[in-house]
Automatic annotation (TrEMBL):
Residues 52-128 form the N-acetyltransferase domain. Gene3D superfamilies: 3.40.630.30. One of its GO terms (molecular function) is protein-N-terminal-alanine acetyltransferase activity. SUPFAM superfamilies: Acyl-CoA N-acyltransferases (Nat). Signal peptide: none annotated. Pfam families: Acetyltransf_3. This is N-acetyltransferase domain-containing protein. InterPro entries: Acyl_CoA_acyltransferase, GNAT_dom, Ribosomal_N-acetyltransferase.
Length: 188
């Protein structure tokens, strides 16, 4: 779950907040909103713990730009819910809100190029690959990156190349909205 993220795994909520969002007390970091995704139990009974819902993942609007009417959507899905309806429906709801009530012009999705599942999920939801930012970030050793060490004298860790995908308002109005709704309807 954390192989393609610079931070994690986390052992506490405090670590998660600071590792995933940065320090929320810093004013410049207030461009992120975090959401929790829950999957309802499909049976009419509760599980062994009495729960009818399970935490399925975390989503975010990040790097929001009111001036440019743009935002990035990020998602981390719990392994048990990967390749299920969770990503399609959770991201779909955030996209519908972004292009509906928020009237944004651009929604972006960025992920490691090594995370082919994430790239493919974005494309399935209507995002278009715009390009790759080579050596965009450095991950700690042990994480999945571009397979190359950063080089002598350049620090420690492995490089990450970042795939940049987007949906813009004109894409949304020219068929992406309907394509996404069909994916969401199929995976409820």
């Amino acid at each position: 779950m954390y192989a393609h993220n610079a931070s994690g795994p986390y052992t506490s909520i405090s670590q998660l907040v600071h590792g995933f969002l940065g320090d929320p007390s810093v004013p410049g970091l207030r461009t992120t909103v975090l959401f929790a995704a829950f999957a309802k139990n499909t049976s009419s009974t509760t599980d062994a713990n009495g729960d009818t819902e399970k935490m399925a993942g975390l989503l975010s609007y990040s790097d929001a730009s009111p001036a440019n009417l743009s935002v990035e959507i990020g998602i981390m899905t719990v392994p048990a819910f990967q390749r299920t309806h969770v990503t399609s429906n959770a991201v779909g709801l955030l996209m519908q809100y972004a292009f509906g009530p928020l009237a944004l012009r651009r929604v972006e999705w960025q992920c490691s190029t090594a995370n082919t599942a994430s790239v493919n999920a974005a494309k399935r939801l209507g995002f278009q690959l715009e390009g790759v930012k080579r050596w965009d970030r450095v991950y700690p050793k042990g994480k999945v990156g571009n397979g190359l060490s950063v080089g002598e004298g350049r620090g420690e860790g492995v490089g990450r190349d970042t795939a940049v995908l987007s949906v813009c308002w004109d894409d949304w109005e020219s068929g992406v909205r309907e394509k996404l709704q069909a994916v969401m309807d199929r995976t409820k």
